[in-house]
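Hi R.,

Here's the chain you asked about this morning:
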Amino acid sequence: MGVNRRPSAIRVEIGELVLDGFHADPARVSAAFERELVRLVARHGVPLAANGAVTMEALTGLPPLPAGLSARRLGQELARAVHQGLSGHGEVTP
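And the predicted structure, written out as tokens:
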């Protein structure tokens, strides 16, 4: 019988999101970002942390986002880009 290696808790701590060139309400972007990232992590996990805790300084090489998005949509798309980075797409700075 296999052991369930799915963690009982996942903690993603983001110190700063830098949104150059966007004119959306930062609080609304942040709320939408958090909701979408929680949804994605709950559904797909964090593949880079499959073997235990991982600490990263930065995720780079993520896809660009269009500047004209609403705050809600910007938060969602940003969360998807970050989750892609946490899934092994993009470059990780340990």
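Strands lie at 58-60, 91-93.

Let me know if you need anything else.
M.
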